[in-house]
Amino acid sequence: MTFRVKILYQSTALRVVLAKLQGIEEKQAQVLSLLQQTQDVCLPVSSDDLPVHFMENLKLLDEKLADDSEFAKLVKILGFRGGKDVADCTRKVLSGLMTTGLARQLNWRGGQIKTSITDTTLILQLIFVSVRQNKEFQKATQEEMEGTVKTWLRSACDRDGGRAKRRKTIVSPPEESDN
User: Fold this and answer.
1) Which of 21, 24, 32, 120 is deepest in the core (most CB within 10 A)?
2) 29 close to 21: Cβ distance less than 8 angstroms
3) Least confident residue range of 62-66, 138-142, 166-170
4) Average of pLDDT values for 7-35?
5) Cβ neighbours of residue 51 under 8 Å, at least 6 residues apart?
6) φ/ψ (deg, to 5) at 52
C-alpha cells in the first residue's frame, strides 16, 4: 500500500468514527432531554386522592385544578397510564381519575338525577390534556375523546358487576302449578 492510499484509508476511517460519535451525541442529548422532562414527576399528596370516590371531592378537585402546578402534576400522573389507542388511553385516564360509583352519578349533559361532567370544566380539560400527554396521541381530536368519555360514563352501570346484578334481579315468570 502506498503512502497516499494509507492516508486516504485512515481519513475515511476517521470520518466514519466522527459520524458515529456525532450520532451518539445526538442520542445522548435526546435521552438527557427525556430525563429532564420526567424528573419533576410528583406523586399526589395522598394516595387516597385518586381515583375520586365522591361528587363533592370531584368538585373540590375541579377547584384545586385552577392551580397550574396541581393541574400539571395530575396531567403527568394520569398521562402515564397509556393505552393502545386514543379511546383506550381516555378510558384508562378516566378510571384513574374516578371510581365506577362516581361515574354512575355523571353523564355528559346532566339532567334527571345525574350531574353533567361538563360542569367540571377543569376536570374535562385534565382528561383531554392527560391523553394528549402521550406522544402517540398528541393529535387526538376533541370529538374522539368526548365520544369516549360519553360512552365510558354511559356504560358505568355495567362495570364492577352491574350488568350481572341486573340479570339476576330480572324476575322470572311464575311457574304454573298443577293445583
Assistant:
1) 120
2) no
3) 166-170
4) 86
5) 95, 96, 97, 98, 99, 102
6) -75, 135
What's the pLDDT band for 43 if we cut at 50, 70, 90?
very low
Per the CB < 8 A criterion, the answer to whether 52 and 61 are in contact is yes
The CB density around residue 161, as the number of other CB atoms within 10 Å, is 10
Cβ proximity of 153 and 108 under 8 Å: yes
Partners of residue 98 on adjacent β-strands: 52
d(CA 134, CA 75): 10
Q: What is the mean pLDDT of residues 109-121?
A: 92
Length in residues, the chain? 179
pLDDT score of 166 more than 70: no
**Global pTM?**
0.67
**Backbone dihedral angles phi then psi of residue 114, each to the nearest 5 degrees:** -100, 155
The C-alpha atoms of residue 76 and residue 58 are separated, in whole angstroms, by 18
> What confidence score (pLDDT) does residue 170 get?
64
CB 50 within 8 A of CB 96: yes
